Amino acid sequence: MLRTEAVVDLAAITANVATLKAGTSAELMAVVKADGYGHGLLPAARAALAGGATWLGAAIVDEAVALRAAGLTVPLLAWLWTPGEAATVRRALAADVDLSVSGRWQLDAVVAAAREAGRPARVHLKIDTGLSRNGAYVDDWSDLVTASAKAQAEDVLDVVGVWSHFAYADEPGNPTITRQLRAFEAALDVAAAAGVRPQLRHIANSAATLTLPAAHFDLVRPGIAVYGLSPVPGQHGLVPAMTLRAAAANVKRVRAGEGVSYGHEYTTDRATTLVLVPLGYADGVPRHAGNAGPVQVSGRRFAISGRVCMDQVIVDVGDHPVAPGDPVVLFGSGADGGPTAQDWADAAGTIHYEIVTRIGPRVQRVYVGGSS
Length: 372
Description:
The protein contains 11 helices and 19 strands. By secondary structure, it is α/β, with parallel strands linked by helices.
């Protein structure tokens, strides 16, 4: 095996999307932002399409344009861009990438680019229903849809979608979910009164796709679930697609009482074997998971011993037989009892989204189960 590798099971991504698609009559947008949540933008996108996705979603335009450059022709949406990205907007239009619009300055920028290009721009108007992140505030929504309807009548704009995003869908039953759904429906009514009747209404993220059929509308947008990680309790038939592992770089016997790693926050309490693993915080291993992060060494589960270093960690394996080059798994599917990304999230006090997306470029991606 390689020194370090993130093994990505493309068949798992395809199967996860098929599982999600089987649970809805809506179209499905596979969100492949952040380099496919660390799994690889293009391989993840292709695997998701093989599973039945009909749309792809990317946070930034460069990601969407890269998908186009790779020959993918399905509808694409990009939603995060700033006033200094006029050239980015033009690239999006040239590549047939739909853009999200959350306010008048964005609408004006898109309209200007569309007039310059001599072709209508495809947009999705975003309403802030309670996340207070991106999206037009309710007090500004009427002005945005009215201006959009005017631009659409002038044939410089095509309002393809109206959308929003949940704040608490990962907590089924939270009262904010119902409030946001009502706010979304009210925003759709305001849009319709202004003459904006989009082809697609969408608000469902992974959690809502799995647990809230009332929020599916015309399109669902699963992200983390595409990669087999559930944002709500239970796996719901999803299979984690990434396994992070490394070859043991050094193995040595030491005496009792030896301090291990910086600051000696771990001390051996007996004669034991220490295994050096060439993965550290520069590769995405959370530094604050020292003495807690779980690993599987030659089939048996242990915890990191001492601090996480920039390039490596150490594991006290007792008398367990290990040789240099043996596989050390930080996380995987958990099917064999090994640690999962959720186990690492628990150890680091974070969420599994962060665990997989933070794996750095020094870690080679290895693709199995499909074409990369």
